[in-house]
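Appendix B, Record 12. Input sequence as logged:
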Amino acid sequence: MSDSSRDTAEGAGWGSAQLGEYRRLMPPKVEKISWLDPKTLWAARNGVVASWFGDPTGRTRSRWVAQRAAAGAPADKVIRRADPDRFSFMVIGDTGEGDDPQYAVVPGFLRISQDTRFAVVASDVIYPVGSADDYATKFFRPYRDYPAPIYAIPGNHDWYEDLGAFMRVFCDDAPPLDPEPAPRPLTRAWLRSLLWHRPRANDGQLLDEARRLRAAPAQRAVQPGPYWAVDAGQVRIIGIDTGLLGTLDAEQGAWLREVSRGPRPKILITGSPLYVDGEHHPCAIEGGGTVDDIVRDPEHHYVAAIGGDIHNYQRYPVDVDGRTIQYVVSGGGGAFMHATHTIPHVSVANVTEEDFRCYPLRGDSLAFYSRLYGRRLRLRRFFTLTEAEATAVIAERLGIPPTRLPGKPARVTLRTRLVASLLGAGGRPDRTSRFRLPVRKIYTQLFSPSSATYSPPFFKCFLRLDVTPEEVRLRCFAATGNLAQEIDPPVEDEVTIPLSRATPEGSDDREHHA
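Logged structural output:
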């Protein structure tokens, strides 16, 4: 097994590494998305519009679900597969920008996914706005050689055009919805309709041709709707649609409560992670209650909740009444990298720094961003931190041992501390520093989405889950864009999750690290 980022800097993809061969998979011309481009931001405005004038996605989702039911989709929205008791599947989140980082994931994904029964895309299949004509280069082409079905749950970007393209691709070419009646003038709904982004009239003309790239019968996956459950082997995998603003409508909430009942072990796939960046986000359900209430209920037997939306990997083993539920963020499938160095010292739901795992490591994240903004601001000599310097200053700020011991101890200087503060590096809540500037929230909301880069290491990732009657083995694999990690993707994290339906009191089922 190759070195991971926890072992060596070379395992993280730093140094004079040879570029991978992923570019052979890419189309001749690649459109590079810039999240600082006003045109891109304007096209992706529906989330902001919904937060101002009301979120219509619950009503639109209900119409999609009713249409699929009328077309013969199962009423309980459960996909019943004939998988054996021992099987494997893949999870990859936030994939479709269609550029180098997305395609850099593909060679390793194909290697590790051999013999898996299916894959799940956890949130944001297509950027920037889920357009139908983007599916050719951002879904069908990169995954054309994956031989099994791919299921998906939509993310907020897939909703920016009212989910029409997503429904066509994943839900048996669902026809467009009939238009709703025009809202009354001078109402909030009327104002929303004036600003609402809608697909182009001719969008989707390339879709039929694109489908040929994944046309084999074994690749076909038809979903009952934007949310669904899959019964596979011993487990039930439940995918929920959190829409534009990260919430559930009442109808979907009632369905989730229903399909969560029973002793079968369950894994939740969601577009809005329930634990992320050291915080708990339980995900509200319209009418009362939260998604995490359902996950935590011992009668429902959830063992894991995996969320996309945030473009990195995080894991929180949370003790819930004597049993452990693994809360995972897995959104590193191809879109720009959200920083991990901004995550403060973790202390949430009795999860400590010793329990918490993330990829990229915080030091690698800080080194990545220091180089990125050093180039952009033409201040390379000031901003750029080596991996060793970044690792050392993160350890100092968080009060933890270095995650990866550098070959030579790095000295933490005034410049190193200042750059870490300017780039929003997290720290301990009980420590203050005159170099700690109030920029973390501004940084993560404004600067991080501009982090597109087209030279390795990219710090992308994907999951493989191996299921047996006794346990689920969850592994996070890295994709850096370099040849070494392309040939032998390193395991960045591993945990074995027991599937016993009743854990004896006093037993230790917390976790097993690779």
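The longest strand covers residues 471-479.
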